[in-house]
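Hi R.,

Here are the chain sequences for the assembly we discussed:
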Amino acid sequence: MVLKIFFPQCCNTADSGLLVGRWIPGHNSAVVLAVIHYPFIPGQVKKYLSELQSQTQVDLTVLGSWSMPKEGQEGMDSFLKDLSTIFPQECWLQLSREIGKRGFTCQVVQNNGRLLQEQKNGDDKIVLIHYDQRKVMLSQLHPVQDVGQKSDVEASELGLVFQTVAQSQPLFLLDKYDDGPLKLSHWQSEGREASIIAELLKQASVPVCIFLTWLLSLWHWLCSFRILHLRPVLFISSKLSTCVQSGYRAVHFKTVFSPKKAATHMEFMRKANIFVSFLVDIALGLLLISWLYRENRISKLADTLVPVADVSMTHITSHLWKSLESRVAKELQELLEWLMGAPAGLKMNRALDQVLGRFFLYHIHLWISYIHLMSPFIERILWYVGLSGCLGLTFALSILSDIVALLTFHIYCFYVYGARLYCLKIYGLSSLWRLFRGKKWNVLRQRVDSCSYDLDQLFIGTLLFTILLFLLPTTALYYLVFTLLRLVMVLFQGVIHLSVDFINSLPLFAIGLRICRPYRLAEGVKFKVLCQEPGTPLHLMMEINPLKCSSVLQCYRTPTYSCYPKDSWAALCKKLFVGELIYPWKQKTAKTD
Amino acid sequence: MGADSGPGAPAAVPWRKVLYERQPFPDNYVDRRFLEELRRNIRVRQYRYWAVVRETGLIAQQVSCVAVFLTLWSCMEQGDLVPSAVLWVCLGCALLGYGLYEILGGACVRERTRLADLQSATIFLAFTFGFSPVLKTLTESVSTDTVYAMSAVMLLAHLVSFPYAQPSPPGSLSLNAALFASVCLASRLPGALHTFTMLSCALLVFALWPCLLHRMREKAEWSFPWAAVLVCLAGVGGLGSLWPEGALLLSLALLTLTLLCPLLLVHLQRHKDNIHGPWDEAEIREDLSRFLN
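And here is the predicted structure of the full complex:
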């Protein structure tokens, strides 16, 4: 069995003393955490260790002795050998280093007094692995295991090493300038690292968090009014993406601004990710506003859209509004005129064509009059709505999506009319086709059976079948046109939602951490041979392998209410063919409906 | 394996034709009684020529019905016939036919009341009259050739799927095909009244006439051939007034159908070679209606 000793790099030049660390259970290895220097009193050492043990839940013990001979300190070796009797161990390590030589020598004494020689040919070998203590302490090994799962899953040796170093943080609080009875050597022994700004922020964040949590509870109280829980209001608010987005953000704020400190690594990362992405969101939103409202860009855009420039109106929003609306309505009118003719030489039934065309034109006329009625109020509302970009880019995009949905509401209505008519027609045709052949649908057995119809049923059935069949091209064409328009709208909304979702779920903090401090997110380690001399054990340098970027994204992605396609392509095509109404994007909600 | 040719056939134990008992014979052994139960042509009927000719009258008259209908349509399209006159004639014919039907079926138990019949008639008339403006413009944008082709296919389907064995409740597919064809043709007529008239004629010719004919065959056997011949003559005559070559073709076809085909049928009977045996499906010969009451 190979004995692995993990030795911190900072202790390479430490003075002689006792090695303090932990034996890894189940694996033949030991982690050295610090070196306690002379002079020390063994009783105090034991007391200190037991205090730390209760504080950190890590079973710290004295592993052995470390000797780095300096001038005036000869005779230490024998002293060190006697120490093994004071601190009884199963295995006592004796590491020593000579000035001028790179490698250490290591002797392991077992409790029955037997000496293990490293040169012995056989199974017993010793490997010394050097590690950077600060990096290993701060790093988190992936895949992350929850603390509560310790008993279920067998932790790997590396996981245990990382865990030991991370949990022994109170050990590193004593530095070498302390006046206490013990003097330790570890990575922080030159003095504790702290920055004043970080400390001030930490102190200030607690009252700020409490205040924000109070604001949030106020918001929740407002939202819990009975009047807002009526069915129509709930329905509308579930359809408007702005409401969905704001609800989602409220949930996030609750997570971020809670005054409790994050217990596990994942919670901390989640909080940090949400906070950073929120800040970036607001920054992007402000950027968008500054770009939109500068240099009259909007009116320039409106001018290119409006066929006839309206010079009397100078307000940017009224330009945008009127031009878009009149353009959309005009396009629709032209389309309907084309349909009422003989589009593409198709065999349209003239009478039905005229009826349908006039019906839809009348709808457009109604819609335009409604818009004109509303237009004086819309200007102001739009101007203030445009300012909502300061709440974040996602908000601006959600509002854009909602505005587009409202503007094209009449297209949605037309689609519903066309689809219902077509669906009815297809249903009637299929049923009458069965009557034509003398069969009917057996609901009980879910199959087609033969049936003897009466004379009048046959007569009327055939008449209706003929009528429906010859009117099919007309209805199908209207349905096709409006479905295509609706699909374009759905696609556009889907693109907006996808980008909102992308901004919401991107773990910017984790990515930043991966780029700037790659050792904090560790996937594994790699070893480099430092020194391989005969007579000394093998020295390896352990370096942290950072997590791959794709794994970072996968692991730390914030879960969102992402929209994903509800139906597969085949099911969608079938629905389109039959005339069922399609709602292709389904939203994943946290609560099950 | 032939009979008695299998090896190891001891004469001590006779072979039984069962598979559930282990016998000293191999499984595919058969004895000399093999195929004893084979019967040939036990259900072959001996057709008599003139009886078959009588029966083919039904097919001939159905073809002629189609010809009559086409004649009517053609006359109405060219404007030779006034729709109101045709309508009155149709109504008269319908009442006449109904009366005849009632007289012939006097002893039978009526399965539909007079009221139900009146209801049906009202529904027909109302529906057809209501939908005739819609039906008139139905095939406006379809080209004439397509309309003619569709009607021809549908009438052919009607003739092919007609239930010649039991024409009294008209078969669904045949009636529907005929009505579809008549709607296609009727939509080519110049006015809504024409369309209405055409559809009423179609109903009369394709739906109601077979019922009356069947009743006549059942009750007054002697009248059936005369009715069939009358209809054939009307068909040929009507077609002849429009298209003399067509009349010639039709009469030729009818003669072939009525005279030549039965000859072929009777002549080819001697080539029949049906085998029957215990492997046939069981057929219930008795009339089981006595168990139902």
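Chain A touches chain B through 25 residues (CB under 8 Å). DSSP finds 17 helices and 16 strands in chain A.

Let me know if anything looks off.

Best,
T.
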